[in-house]
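Problem: given the chain below (264 residues), write out its structure.
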Amino acid sequence: MSKLKRLKEIMNRYNSAIVAYSGGVDSSFLLFCAKRYIKGNVFAVTGISETYTREELLFAREFTRQLGLKLITIRTSEFENPDFIENSERRCYYCKRELFSKIEKLRKRLGCEVIFDGSNYSDTSDYRPGNLAKKELNVISPLEIAGFTKDEIRRYSNKFGIKGYNRPSNACLASRIPYYTEIDRMTLRKIYAIERFIKSLGVKTVRVRHHKEIARIETSAEEMDTILENRERIIREAKRHNYAFVSLDLEGYRTGSLNRMKNL
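Solution.
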């Protein structure tokens, strides 16, 4: 059985669903397939907080509009949880627990059968404490169950003409801060501002990792030249946000790079 047929089979079990929709490539493909394969109501729900970028929200609104769906937004309150602010290795759990708890309340109000999220099979190779929150709140990950990898999701998205199939991966802004460095709104804002500035220079993939007075920039190997060509401008922007030092990580961008530090 093909993975697409397996995905269809999983979704056909339900007459209605909420898709926890981030606006990323994975959840966009998931939402497209849910709209295609579920006969009843499909709702797209996005959690909004200081960890979520404006660009992702704008894309989410436009994509759901194109699918003929209305985007439901809910305000999450992870900053009210001191465990989230502490930023231990379980940070993602507290964030996901907050999001899925509120979506679960909405699911009951709407009378939906299930909550889907966009986790895929490639995610199983990384440290994902948020998976516990999924289990606790009975959130289903159809793409992971069907065995879809990140590359396969992009390939099928391109085949189906899904907008944004080649967009760079994104993650919540809190993932830029090493474990046990407390998370605060000001730090998230300055990380976001510097990343936006670098993207305005034509760089597609960028992460600004926060190490107290150091801003460590990760980008793809192909885009390092662009960073270096604009070195002085980027330094000025980072120092404007009170970073004393700015570095370019020669290993380049990789998902979950800060997870390495928890084993040091």
